[in-house]
# Entry
Amino acid sequence: MTKLILSPTVQKIKADIGEIDVTPIVEKVVATMYKDFPSLKEKFGEKGKERTIEDNFYHFLYLNTAYKLNDTNTFTEYATWLNSVLVSRGLKTELIIYNFKKIQECMPGILESEVEKKFMDYLEAGIQTLKEVANKE
# Structure
């Protein structure tokens, strides 16, 4: 797996996340997404991949914020907002759900167990929220 090139934006997000190193998870998730959806590269190019990397770091920033606040709504509100932004740019809600599920698949064993469990719970709540949004579309 190739190492991610971390843009200044990603470096700032990483600093905002703090002690938790999610880079290995993001590397796996993005590699899997682009393998499973080669049309992403065709449609959005290298710039799109950079945005996907940034988006995944943002997912973790909001997961970590929800964890610090012990507030599921922090993440579900982010998921709803993210969906409105990405759908307006031509992506489908199902891809965001897929992305969150891939994080759940790639995360086990990398983070501290309490953090991991809460992140899993927040991701599941985000997935359920997005499924409700998709059903209304």
Q: What stands out?
A: The mean pLDDT is 93. The helical segments are 8-17, 23-36, 39-69, 72-88, 93-106, 113-136.
